[in-house]
Write a structure and sequence with these properties.
This protein is an alpha+beta fold and 152 residues long. 27% of the residues lie in helices and 43% in strands.
Length: 152
């Protein structure tokens, strides 16, 4: 897809900048909304992200993206923290947030259900282990449509 290629190019530019400042790139979104095209960058780091962090990253990344001219149309750049219900995107996220509450949705049902809300037990091989109502499920990592931390 055209957007996937664009997001990959933006990721390759943005990720080294964020990492050099001690941030992790959690997610990127590029979509059309009522106000026009929006590029959202979600970042995080140990101890959290402040409004000043977001403003600084927005200024620096915005300037570099303008110079690189990767995005063909006018857009709004938004930089923010992923919030309390942070998405789990990378395999390492499933070990990093072990013992926290999660909500996971699968593409295909497993044992008759697609939605799982419980305690994340971690990643073993290609299976995400989650305890739901005192039962442990092993969910295929590639089968996860969406996974987020959940507020207790």
């Amino acid at each position: 897809m055209k957007f996937e290629k664009l997001l990959q190019e933006v990721r390759e530019v943005v990720e080294p900048i964020l990492e050099s400042q001690g941030f992790e790139l959690v997610d990127l979104e590029y979509q059309r909304e009522s106000q026009g095209w929006v590029l959202r960058i979600y970042l995080d780091r140990e101890g959290g992200v402040s409004l000043d962090d977001c403003a600084g990253v927005s200024h620096e990344v915005g300037a570099i993206l303008e110079v690189k001219d990767l995005i063909p149309s006018a857009y709004i750049l938004e930089v923010s923290s992923p919030g309390l219900t942070r998405p789990l995107k990378k395999p390492e996220d499933f070990n990093r947030f072990r013992n926290q509450m999660v909500k996971i949705k699968l593409y295909e049902p497993l044992e008759g259900r697609r939605n799982f809300k419980g305690t994340l037990l971690g990643l073993e091989g290609d299976r995400v282990r989650v305890e739901v109502e005192q039962r442990v499920y092993e969910l295929p990592l590639q089968g996860i449509a969406k996974a987020n931390l959940e507020i207790d």
